[in-house]
Amino acid sequence: MSIVVKNLYKYYGEQAAVRDVSFSVKKGEIVAFLGPNGAGKSTTMKIMTGFIPASEGEVEICGLKVDIDKLETRKLIGYLPENNPLYTDMYVREYLEFVGRIYKIKNLKARVAEMITAVGLEVEQHKKIGALSKGYRQRVGLAQAIIHDPEVLILDEPTTGLDPNQLVEIRDLIRRIGKEKTVILSTHIMQEVEAICDRVIIISKGQIVADDSAKTLQQEQEHQTVYVEFDTKVSKSQLSKISGVSKVEPFDNGWLIESVTQLDLRKAIAQHAQNEQWLILTLRVDKKSLEEVFKELTK
């Protein structure tokens, strides 16, 4: 495993910001680390990078313990913090060369040029960082995180401030990186999670409340909702008679029908429509969005 987090705790005074957090991430996996503000996401990420110590528990990066092999594990990690601290008086290329020298990168100028192209900084590379927009500063932060070709990439809100075109480019870059490396990222943009992440870990009040693929989390719901539209006028009371139906509400040109049973509600609706000689124009299962799942797990 590239990342192993075991029974992690972090206390600030008597308050536990992180409580008994455990998970692992393998190479080639892109994992979304989600949670509301104050849930413990950034704290956990800072512990994983060795930026702050854990109160209890341990973190391993590529088999090395972060609290023991501090310098070696930092060589293996690329980190983009939430507030993206940069030297705003330095020029883009100058700053990336400075970071590269810290990592003792060979063929530094070629590597910097490669990073500038990878994150789309060609037009802005000769400007001071302080003169860049927030989106371009974010690109500089991402470039410094990957310049030393790390095994593990930890990104805290990597697409903050990017416009829609930039979002697509950075998502593609993260997806490409994730094929060969391990990526864990936090974000509040659920479309981003669905677009690039293999797995979702949700943390709430310092504890993990879900760990699975986005698709599985959306399917694990207590009730089933089906949207149906008929070619004829149908009443709410008529639909309520269908076996297994718990709730019926008008929606758009049809109806949203809910059931708490595990049986496929579509079969019951189709059978009832056939008996009543109704022609079905539309019949589909309405799944919960990832945002709705997130709200339910963290409310």
Q: Which whole number gives the mean pLDDT?
A: 91
For the record, the count of structural domains works out to 2
Shape: elongated
The value of Rg in angstroms is 24 Å
Estimated share of beta-strand residues: 25-35%
Strand order of the largest sheet: 6-7-8-3-9-10
In CATH, the architecture of the largest domain is 3-Layer(aba) Sandwich
Give the proportion of residues in helices: 25-40%
- Please identify the top-level CATH class of the largest domain: Alpha Beta
Secondary structure tally, helices:
11
Largest sheet: 6 strands, mixed
Q: What's the multimeric state? A: single chain
- CATH H level, superfamily name of the largest domain: P-loop containing nucleotide triphosphate hydrolases
Distance between the termini: 32 Å
N-to-C SSE series? EEEHEEHEHHHEHEHEEHEHEEHEH
Overview of this protein structure:
This protein has helices spanning 41-49, 70-76, 92-102, 108-118, 134-146, 164-178, 190-196, 214-219, 236-240, 265-276, 290-298; strands spanning 3-12, 15-25, 30-34, 56-61, 64-65, 77-80, 152-156, 182-186, 199-204, 207-212, 224-230, 245-251, 254-259, 280-285. It has 2 domains: 3-218, Rossmann fold (3-Layer(aba) Sandwich), CATH 3.40.50.300; 222-298, Alpha-Beta Plaits (2-Layer Sandwich), CATH 3.30.70. Helix content is 35%, strand content 29%. β9 (199-204) and β10 (207-212) form a beta hairpin. The two termini are 32 Å apart. It is built from 11 helices and 14 strands. By secondary structure, the protein is α/β, with parallel strands linked by helices. It has a 6-stranded mixed beta sheet, sandwiched between helices. A 4-stranded antiparallel beta sheet has the order 2-1-4-5, covered by helices on one side.
